[in-house]
Design a protein that fits this description.
Number of strands: 0
Strand content: under 5%
Structural class: mainly alpha
Number of helices: 14
Distance between the termini: 20 Å
Organism: Myxococcus xanthus (strain DK1622)
Radius of gyration: 19 Å
Shape: globular
Protein name: Phospholipase C/D domain-containing protein
Length: 337
């Protein structure tokens, strides 16, 4: 289904969802449908799935990190989603969110282009101090965040090469990038879970990034917000308000609500997707699932190094530089799978 068709369809399917969930406004549903269709739910869905894989297979992570991923998985999802969460700001945009040439949200651009590793290191320093959030919730956030960075760095160049090879005549590179990411994400989910996940409650669970169940009316806790605010202000130069971050979290939940509903199946893989599987997911020269597993191995290594950085407790330009030698700063693909 073409992206425009999904946006048009939102005008007819949204009232049904509104009737089923009366506490969601029409603007909320419309904006979340726009976000799924236009901005890159495949990115977030892949990141949210990857951190769940990390939690299920922590490997040789230190015991504190293993416990954090086990007991505070929603916070790990929050960290995994954080660089892309500003994409959800359309939840408050109503029908205005349908502008097709809408710019990438401000903080989404900042979090991908301005010191993403430095941002994560600042969060690590604050977690190590124990002043804002508990140790385990903080470690969970960090595990998700650095796994996101590793996944972006590994998969974005892969998708770029596939875009060059498979982009249709007249198709914009950005549109091809989104389509390829979405197909890869759905192939991966189907292989991982043994079923089509769209239209099932499992998708909604992936979008739960706070500990309380159900709609996140209160957003995130004050300590978690301060962790984001202070790190963002120091390393990015600007920080979102709490109401902005809370809006992102609610937007993610509503998008998960849509994708877990029967209407979410409209975004599933078509029956003729076998050729795409061979071209985009697995063939003699490329294996997407193996790339994901390789990324998780890299992320475990980065997290072990981060554990040592935090344990030493000496946070100076020199110690940061040593960490950055192993995991350099750089710009991330804003819509990496």
């Amino acid at each position: 289904m073409k992206r425009l068709g999904l946006v048009e369809r939102a005008r007819t399917v949204t009232p049904a969802l509104l009737h089923a969930k009366r506490w969601i406004s029409f603007e909320h549903c419309i904006a979340s449908l726009h976000w799924v269709a236009v901005w890159g739910m495949p990115t977030l869905l892949m990141h949210l799935t990857a951190i769940e894989r990390m939690a299920a297979n922590p490997g040789e992570l230190p015991a504190d990190w293993v416990r954090a991923l086990s007991e505070d998985l929603p916070y790990a999802r929050f960290g995994a989603a954080l660089p892309d969460l500003p994409l959800c700001e359309g939840i408050r945009g109503g029908l205005a969110a349908f502008l097709p040439e809408r710019e990438l949200p401000h903080f989404a651009r900042l979090y991908h282009e301005r010191a993403p590793v430095g941002f994560g290191l600042k969060m690590a320093e604050l977690v190590a101090s124990g002043a804002l959030v508990g140790t385990e919730p903080g470690l969970a956030v960090l595990a998700g965040y650095f796994t996101h960075l590793c996944l972006d760095r590994r998969l974005y160049p892969v998708v770029d090469r596939l875009v060059v090879r498979h982009r249709r005549r007249g198709e914009r590179a950005l549109e091809a990038h989104r389509d390829i990411e979405w197909a890869q994400t759905l192939f991966y989910l189907r292989e991982l879970h043994g079923m089509e996940l769209l239209g099932t409650p499992r998708v909604r669970e992936k979008c739960q990034v706070v500990k309380s169940l159900g709609f996140p009316w209160r957003g995130i806790g004050g300590g978690l917000y301060e962790l984001v605010r202070l790190s963002s202000q120091e390393r990015v130069g600007q920080a979102p308000s709490k109401s902005e971050v809370d809006g992102w979290v609610r937007g993610l939940y509503v998008s998960g609500l849509f994708l877990s509903s029967p209407m979410g199946r409209a975004r599933a893989l078509p029956a003729y997707a076998r050729l795409s599987f061979q071209e985009l997911y697995r063939n003699d020269t490329f294996d997407f699932a193996a790339e994901v597993e390789g990324t998780l191995d890299t992320a475990r290594s980065v997290l072990r190094r981060l554990h040592g950085y935090m344990a030493r407790g000496t946070f100076t330009p020199r110690t940061r530089a040593r960490f950055l030698e192993a995991f350099p700063e750089g710009t991330l693909g804003a819509r990496a799978a």
